Recover the amino acids of this structure.
Protein backbone atom coordinates (compact mmCIF):
# COMPACT_ATOMS: atom_id res chain seq x y z
CA UNK A 1 0.00 0.00 0.00
CA UNK A 2 1.39 3.38 -1.01
CA UNK A 3 1.51 6.03 1.71
CA UNK A 4 -0.64 9.11 1.13
CA UNK A 5 0.87 12.60 1.40
CA UNK A 6 -1.82 13.60 3.90
CA UNK A 7 -0.76 10.70 6.12
CA UNK A 8 2.83 11.95 6.05
CA UNK A 9 1.63 15.46 6.93
CA UNK A 10 -0.37 14.04 9.85
CA UNK A 11 2.73 12.28 11.19
CA UNK A 12 4.67 15.55 11.07
CA UNK A 13 1.91 17.42 12.89
CA UNK A 14 1.78 14.69 15.56
CA UNK A 15 5.52 15.20 16.10
CA UNK A 16 4.93 18.94 16.42
CA UNK A 17 2.22 18.41 19.05
CA UNK A 18 4.53 16.20 21.11
CA UNK A 19 7.75 18.17 20.68
CA UNK A 20 6.84 21.85 20.58
CA UNK A 21 6.00 22.15 24.32
CA UNK A 22 9.46 20.71 25.18
CA UNK A 23 11.56 23.06 23.07
CA UNK A 24 14.20 24.82 25.16
CA UNK A 25 13.51 22.79 28.32
CA UNK A 26 15.85 20.74 30.53
CA UNK A 27 13.64 17.70 29.99
CA UNK A 28 14.30 17.89 26.24
CA UNK A 29 18.07 17.76 26.76
CA UNK A 30 18.31 14.57 28.85
CA UNK A 31 20.98 12.48 27.10
CA UNK A 32 20.85 8.80 26.22
CA UNK A 33 23.18 6.58 24.15
CA UNK A 34 24.59 7.44 20.74
CA UNK A 35 22.04 7.03 17.95
CA UNK A 36 22.57 5.27 14.63
CA UNK A 37 23.26 8.62 12.94
CA UNK A 38 26.33 9.10 15.12
CA UNK A 39 25.12 11.82 17.51
CA UNK A 40 24.15 11.39 21.15
CA UNK A 41 20.38 10.88 21.29
CA UNK A 42 18.50 13.23 23.58
CA UNK A 43 15.09 12.74 25.13
CA UNK A 44 13.45 15.05 22.59
CA UNK A 45 14.97 13.07 19.67
CA UNK A 46 13.70 9.75 20.96
CA UNK A 47 10.24 11.11 21.73
CA UNK A 48 9.92 12.43 18.17
CA UNK A 49 11.00 9.08 16.74
CA UNK A 50 8.54 7.19 18.97
CA UNK A 51 5.68 9.34 17.67
CA UNK A 52 6.59 8.41 14.10
CA UNK A 53 6.92 4.69 14.84
CA UNK A 54 3.61 4.61 16.72
CA UNK A 55 1.84 6.36 13.82
CA UNK A 56 3.22 3.84 11.33
CA UNK A 57 2.30 0.84 13.49
CA UNK A 58 -1.26 2.12 14.06
CA UNK A 59 -1.67 2.55 10.29
CA UNK A 60 -0.44 -1.03 9.71
CA UNK A 61 2.25 0.26 7.35
CA UNK A 62 4.69 -2.23 5.83
CA UNK A 63 8.00 -0.51 5.10
CA UNK A 64 11.67 -0.10 5.85
CA UNK A 65 12.17 2.82 8.23
CA UNK A 66 15.50 4.63 8.00
CA UNK A 67 15.73 6.97 10.97
CA UNK A 68 18.31 9.15 12.70
CA UNK A 69 18.17 7.37 16.06
CA UNK A 70 17.35 3.70 15.48
CA UNK A 71 19.03 3.28 12.10
CA UNK A 72 17.08 0.81 9.97
CA UNK A 73 14.05 -1.19 11.04
CA UNK A 74 11.21 -2.93 9.25
CA UNK A 75 7.77 -1.80 10.36
CA UNK A 76 4.91 -4.26 9.81
CA UNK A 77 5.41 -7.16 7.41
CA UNK A 78 9.03 -7.30 6.27
CA UNK A 79 8.31 -9.42 3.19
CA UNK A 80 5.56 -7.05 2.02
CA UNK A 81 7.84 -4.09 2.58
CA UNK A 82 10.58 -5.69 0.47
CA UNK A 83 8.13 -6.71 -2.27
CA UNK A 84 6.60 -3.22 -2.48
CA UNK A 85 10.00 -1.46 -2.08
CA UNK A 86 8.48 0.92 0.50
CA UNK A 87 11.06 3.04 2.34
CA UNK A 88 10.47 5.91 4.78
CA UNK A 89 13.48 8.13 5.53
CA UNK A 90 13.07 10.36 8.57
CA UNK A 91 14.99 12.74 10.73
CA UNK A 92 12.59 13.00 13.68
CA UNK A 93 14.32 16.16 14.90
CA UNK A 94 16.71 17.97 12.57
CA UNK A 95 18.39 20.70 14.61
CA UNK A 96 18.41 18.96 17.98
CA UNK A 97 20.88 21.33 19.60
CA UNK A 98 18.81 24.32 18.51
CA UNK A 99 15.74 22.60 19.97
CA UNK A 100 17.19 21.99 23.41
CA UNK A 101 18.82 25.44 23.64
CA UNK A 102 15.64 27.26 22.63
CA UNK A 103 16.95 28.45 19.26
CA UNK A 104 13.80 28.61 17.09
CA UNK A 105 15.06 26.66 14.09
CA UNK A 106 14.42 22.92 13.99
CA UNK A 107 12.25 20.52 12.01
CA UNK A 108 10.96 17.03 11.37
CA UNK A 109 11.87 15.65 7.95
CA UNK A 110 9.99 12.77 6.26
CA UNK A 111 10.70 11.32 2.79
CA UNK A 112 8.84 8.40 1.20
CA UNK A 113 10.47 6.31 -1.51
CA UNK A 114 9.28 3.41 -3.63
CA UNK A 115 12.65 1.93 -4.45
CA UNK A 116 16.15 2.06 -2.99
CA UNK A 117 17.76 5.16 -4.54
CA UNK A 118 17.48 8.92 -4.09
CA UNK A 119 15.64 9.20 -7.41
CA UNK A 120 12.92 6.90 -6.04
CA UNK A 121 11.70 9.44 -3.46
CA UNK A 122 8.07 10.21 -4.35
CA UNK A 123 6.74 12.30 -1.46
CA UNK A 124 8.28 14.58 1.14
CA UNK A 125 7.29 16.63 4.17
CA UNK A 126 9.35 19.02 6.31
CA UNK A 127 7.62 20.74 9.24
CA UNK A 128 9.07 23.66 11.21
CA UNK A 129 8.72 22.57 14.85
CA UNK A 130 8.61 26.17 16.06
CA UNK A 131 6.18 27.80 13.63
CA UNK A 132 4.26 24.72 12.36
CA UNK A 133 4.93 25.81 8.78
CA UNK A 134 4.60 22.74 6.57
CA UNK A 135 6.64 22.24 3.40
CA UNK A 136 5.64 19.35 1.18
CA UNK A 137 5.94 17.93 -2.31
CA UNK A 138 4.90 15.03 -4.50
CA UNK A 139 7.07 14.09 -7.45
CA UNK A 140 5.87 15.86 -10.59
CA UNK A 141 3.28 17.95 -8.74
CA UNK A 142 5.27 20.93 -7.46
CA UNK A 143 6.29 22.06 -3.97
CA UNK A 144 4.16 23.81 -1.37
CA UNK A 145 4.39 25.77 1.86
CA UNK A 146 1.18 25.13 3.76
CA UNK A 147 -1.39 25.67 0.99
CA UNK A 148 0.63 27.84 -1.40
CA UNK A 149 2.89 26.73 -4.23
CA UNK A 150 6.52 27.81 -3.84
CA UNK A 151 9.44 28.40 -6.19
CA UNK A 152 13.11 29.23 -5.84
CA UNK A 153 14.25 32.83 -6.28
CA UNK A 154 15.52 34.30 -9.55
CA UNK A 155 18.43 36.04 -7.82
CA UNK A 156 21.77 35.46 -9.55
CA UNK A 157 25.37 35.89 -8.41
CA UNK A 158 25.45 39.53 -9.57
CA UNK A 159 22.69 40.38 -7.10
CA UNK A 160 22.41 40.21 -3.31
CA UNK A 161 22.53 36.46 -2.72
CA UNK A 162 22.08 34.83 0.69
CA UNK A 163 23.64 31.45 1.41
CA UNK A 164 24.39 29.07 4.25
CA UNK A 165 27.81 27.50 4.68
CA UNK A 166 28.51 24.35 6.70
CA UNK A 167 32.14 23.35 7.24
CA UNK A 168 33.96 21.10 9.67
CA UNK A 169 35.89 22.90 12.40
CA UNK A 170 38.93 20.91 11.26
CA UNK A 171 41.27 23.22 9.31
CA UNK A 172 38.49 25.82 9.25
CA UNK A 173 40.70 28.82 8.50
CA UNK A 174 42.49 27.06 5.63
CA UNK A 175 39.19 25.89 4.15
CA UNK A 176 37.72 29.38 4.35
CA UNK A 177 40.71 30.73 2.46
CA UNK A 178 40.20 28.15 -0.29
CA UNK A 179 36.53 29.11 -0.49
CA UNK A 180 37.04 32.86 -0.16
CA UNK A 181 36.56 33.61 -3.90
CA UNK A 182 33.09 32.05 -3.66
CA UNK A 183 32.20 33.57 -0.30
CA UNK A 184 33.12 37.05 -1.49
CA UNK A 185 30.58 36.83 -4.29
CA UNK A 186 27.68 36.36 -1.86
CA UNK A 187 25.94 39.20 -0.04
CA UNK A 188 25.28 37.49 3.32
CA UNK A 189 26.26 34.23 5.00
CA UNK A 190 23.85 32.47 7.36
CA UNK A 191 24.56 29.49 9.64
CA UNK A 192 21.19 28.27 10.86
CA UNK A 193 21.40 24.67 12.07
CA UNK A 194 18.64 22.59 10.43
CA UNK A 195 19.64 21.21 7.04
CA UNK A 196 16.10 20.25 6.04
CA UNK A 197 14.70 23.70 6.83
CA UNK A 198 17.52 25.50 5.05
CA UNK A 199 16.90 23.53 1.85
CA UNK A 200 13.23 24.47 2.16
CA UNK A 201 14.18 28.15 2.52
CA UNK A 202 15.92 27.87 -0.85
CA UNK A 203 12.81 26.20 -2.25
CA UNK A 204 10.62 29.12 -1.22
CA UNK A 205 13.07 31.76 -2.40
CA UNK A 206 14.22 33.16 0.94
CA UNK A 207 17.88 32.27 0.36
CA UNK A 208 19.78 31.24 -2.75
CA UNK A 209 22.23 28.48 -1.82
CA UNK A 210 23.46 26.05 0.81
CA UNK A 211 27.06 24.84 0.58
CA UNK A 212 27.45 21.89 2.94
CA UNK A 213 30.93 20.42 2.69
CA UNK A 214 30.76 18.07 5.66
CA UNK A 215 31.33 14.48 4.60
CA UNK A 216 29.33 13.44 7.66
CA UNK A 217 26.12 14.97 6.27
CA UNK A 218 23.48 12.23 6.46
CA UNK A 219 20.81 10.95 4.09
CA UNK A 220 18.12 11.53 6.73
CA UNK A 221 18.98 15.25 6.83
CA UNK A 222 18.39 15.88 3.12
CA UNK A 223 16.09 13.18 1.70
CA UNK A 224 12.87 15.18 2.01
CA UNK A 225 14.50 18.49 1.17
CA UNK A 226 15.89 17.17 -2.13
CA UNK A 227 12.43 16.47 -3.54
CA UNK A 228 10.91 19.69 -2.21
CA UNK A 229 13.77 21.73 -3.69
CA UNK A 230 13.63 20.03 -7.09
CA UNK A 231 9.85 20.43 -7.29
CA UNK A 232 10.34 24.14 -6.53
CA UNK A 233 12.71 24.50 -9.50
CA UNK A 234 15.94 24.29 -7.51
CA UNK A 235 19.10 22.28 -7.96
CA UNK A 236 20.80 19.73 -5.72
CA UNK A 237 24.14 18.18 -6.49
CA UNK A 238 26.26 16.01 -4.18
CA UNK A 239 30.00 16.48 -4.60
CA UNK A 240 30.18 12.73 -5.15
CA UNK A 241 27.95 12.02 -8.15
CA UNK A 242 27.88 8.28 -7.38
CA UNK A 243 25.48 9.01 -4.51
CA UNK A 244 22.53 8.86 -6.93
CA UNK A 245 23.17 5.16 -7.61
CA UNK A 246 23.97 4.24 -4.00
CA UNK A 247 21.42 2.28 -1.99
CA UNK A 248 19.33 4.23 0.53
CA UNK A 249 20.89 3.57 3.91
CA UNK A 250 21.47 5.10 7.33
CA UNK A 251 25.18 4.95 6.43
CA UNK A 252 24.81 7.10 3.30
CA UNK A 253 26.65 10.39 3.89
CA UNK A 254 27.87 13.04 1.48
CA UNK A 255 28.73 16.73 1.07
CA UNK A 256 26.45 18.67 -1.26
CA UNK A 257 25.38 21.98 -2.74
CA UNK A 258 21.75 23.11 -2.99
CA UNK A 259 20.82 26.26 -4.87
CA UNK A 260 18.39 28.03 -7.15
CA UNK A 261 18.74 27.42 -10.88
CA UNK A 262 20.49 30.77 -11.45
CA UNK A 263 23.52 29.75 -9.37
CA UNK A 264 24.01 26.18 -10.55
CA UNK A 265 26.56 26.88 -13.31
CA UNK A 266 28.55 29.35 -11.17
CA UNK A 267 28.82 26.97 -8.21
CA UNK A 268 29.61 23.90 -10.31
CA UNK A 269 32.34 25.80 -12.15
CA UNK A 270 33.88 27.09 -8.91
CA UNK A 271 33.97 23.67 -7.30
CA UNK A 272 35.43 22.00 -10.38
CA UNK A 273 38.26 24.56 -10.19
CA UNK A 274 38.82 23.70 -6.53
CA UNK A 275 39.03 19.93 -6.97
CA UNK A 276 42.81 20.13 -6.87
CA UNK A 277 42.67 21.83 -3.49
CA UNK A 278 41.77 19.58 -0.60
CA UNK A 279 38.96 20.84 1.61
CA UNK A 280 39.06 19.00 4.93
CA UNK A 281 35.65 17.94 6.19
CA UNK A 282 34.23 15.40 8.56
Amino acid sequence: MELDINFLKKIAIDVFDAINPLLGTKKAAIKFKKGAGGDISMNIDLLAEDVIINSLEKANADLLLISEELGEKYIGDEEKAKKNHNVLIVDPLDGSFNAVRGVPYCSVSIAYAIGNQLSDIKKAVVLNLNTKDLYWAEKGKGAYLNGSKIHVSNVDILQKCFFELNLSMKNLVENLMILSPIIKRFYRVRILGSTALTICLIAKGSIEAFINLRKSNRLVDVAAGILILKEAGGKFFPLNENIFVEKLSINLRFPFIACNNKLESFLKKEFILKKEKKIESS
Observations:
- The mean pLDDT is 91.
- Residues 142 and 231 are 5 Å apart (CA to CA).
- Helices lie at 5-19, 43-58, 78-84, 96-101, 172-183, 195-203, 219-231, 264-273.
